[in-house]
Design goal:
- By secondary structure, this protein is α/β, with parallel strands linked by helices.
- Helices cover 33% and strands 16% of the residues.
- It has a single domain, classed as TIM Barrel (Alpha-Beta Barrel), CATH 3.20.20.410.
- It has nine helices and nine strands.
- A nine-stranded parallel sheet has the order 2-3-4-5-6-7-8-1-9.
- Helix 8 packs across helix 9.
- It is globular.
- It starts with 15 loop residues before the first strand and ends with a strand.
């Protein structure tokens, strides 16, 4: 399998990196001490934005984003704060052949406040592990990407049938970022790759490596594990891409923000630019 390369844009130090978490509104983060005691959910984003410059909105997978609600969130953060927004499940998991085009229009309208303000760094298209690379699914995905054209797109495949050069080449032509993931090394999952398909953005999600059963995202990364990612993947990718975003999804007991802080520190020690 070849790694698609893009023209170099300079040294890794010219790439701007943003590190944050997948979601921010977790009541357990109060118990874990990340948020002060008694913090209500409506105040969490403001407090979160004091520590990080980006977040991944994942509630939008469960419900269609509404422009007025997105605008309220946008007003809670500094102007330079960025958002990634997860595409709604009716476009990735519960697809109605007749209704999905209207759903895509509604999604675009819902995130409009972020696009207009220049604060939308990516729309995360996380596909179902049951979404195999069949002819019908290939046609649907192509139509979906066409419909969402103009938005910054990143795609997270979860079935290994999509891990082929032809797919990567198509993403490169469309300037859609292939999401790199860190997750348990279990059979049947999409492999963890650092293939570059978009010179404007690379996107990494850390899901955790829990193989003991229970909650998959209950995991605390060691410094060695984070350092390996920095040295072997993030630093090389940073030399080819203008911007990189890294999100930690291991939210149990506020491990995600703790790991994100340590990752930011490791990146800075390597001389990389962290926003």
């Amino acid at each position: 399998m070849r790694a698609i390369t893009t023209q170099k844009h300079g040294s890794p130090k010219t790439c701007r990196l943003y590190v944050g978490t997948s979601g921010f509104s977790y009541t357990e983060w109060v118990d874990a001490g990340f948020y002060p005691s008694g913090t209500k959910s409506g105040k969490m984003l403001q407090l979160y934005a004091r520590c990080f410059s980006i977040t991944e909105l994942n509630y939008t997978w469960y419900q269609m984003p509404r422009a007025e609600a997105i605008e309220r969130r946008r007003r809670q953060v500094p102007k330079g704060f960025l958002f990634a927004v997860k595409l709604t499940r009716t476009l990735t998991h519960e697809i109605d052949p007749k209704r999905w085009p209207d759903q895509a229009v509604r999604f675009r309208e819902g995130v409009a406040p972020l696009t207009q303000a220049g604060q939308l760094t990516a729309v995360l298209i996380q596909l179902s592990p049951l979404f195999h690379r069949t002819m019908s699914n290939r046609k649907y995905l192509a139509a979906l990407l066409d419909t969402l054209h103009g938005l910054p797109l990143a795609i997270e495949f979860r079935h290994p049938s999509w891990a082929v050069d032809r797919v990567f080449a198509e993403l490169e032509c469309r300037r859609v970022s292939l999401v790199a993931v860190d997750e348990p090394a279990l059979p049947g999952l999409f492999p963890s790759l650092d293939v570059v398909t978009n010179p404007d953005l690379f996107y990494v999600r850390f899901h955790g490596r829990n193989t003991r059963g229970g909650c998959p995202v209950d995991y605390n990364y060691s410094n060695d594990e984070l350092h390996e990612w920095v040295e072997k993947r993030i630093e090389p990718m940073s030399g080819r891409i203008r911007k990189g975003v890294l999100f930690f999804n291991n939210h149990v007991r506020a491990q995600a923000p703790e790991n994100a802080r340590r990752m930011s520190g490791l990146l800075r020690k390597r001389g990389l630019t962290v926003a």
